[in-house]
């Protein structure tokens, strides 16, 4: 008889242990059933750019007359800022990609860099401005094309 009781007791102890673990598992699941947190809205960049095409005076921007170059820069900045404010509803600018036309790629890069030099402050504060050239045979820097990406 002693041998039979010992086997039954060990079998019952095993089932009791499994039931206790199952009960603890259910308690832990119930205690940790917190709803998923809603993620905060992450600001992103609008994938549709605002495109502008301006007529500029490239030789004036790169010329020896600093006052004339500065005036051309101010004119470009004022025009761009006004059009961006009108088309975006006052949203902040994230990225500006500028292409200045010229027959010489090096000069086109310089014109693009100088033409966008005053795009600072207001909506352009903290914006990344990348300047490139647009090779146009025989052109001396007459156009500036901008792709402006704003925050949503």
Task: Summarize the structure in words.
A 4-stranded mixed β-sheet has the order 1-4-2-3, with helices on one face. β2, α4 and β3 form a beta-alpha-beta unit. The protein folds into 2 domains: 31 residues; 101 residues, 2-Layer Sandwich (60s Ribosomal Protein L30, Chain: A). The N and C termini lie far apart (81 Å). It is 45% helix and 21% strand. It is built from 4 helices and 4 strands. With 152 residues, the protein is of the alpha+beta class.
List the helices and strands and how they pair.
Elements: H1 2-31, E1 50-55, H2 58-62, H3 66-88, E2 93-102, H4 105-115, E3 128-135, E4 143-150
Parallel strand pairs: 2-3
Antiparallel strand pairs: 1-4, 2-4
**Would you identify the regions where 5 or more consecutive residues have pLDDT less than 50?**
none
Class computed from helices, strands and strand pairing:
alpha+beta
CATH superfamily of the largest domain: OmpA-like domain
Number of helices: 4
CATH architecture of the largest domain: 2-Layer Sandwich
Query: Would you give the CATH topology of the largest domain?
Result: 60s Ribosomal Protein L30, Chain: A
Percentage of residues in helical conformation: 40-55%
**How many domains comprise the coordinates?**
2
Report the β-strand fraction as a percent range: 15-25%
State the end-to-end CA separation. Answer: 81 Å
Task: Specify Rg, calculated over alpha carbons.
Answer: 34 Å
CATH class membership of the largest domain: Alpha Beta
Helix and strand run: HEHHEHEE
Q: Mind describing the biggest β-sheet?
A: 4 strands, mixed
Integer average pLDDT: 89
- The total strand number stands at 4
Shape: rod-shaped
Strand order of the largest sheet: 1-4-2-3
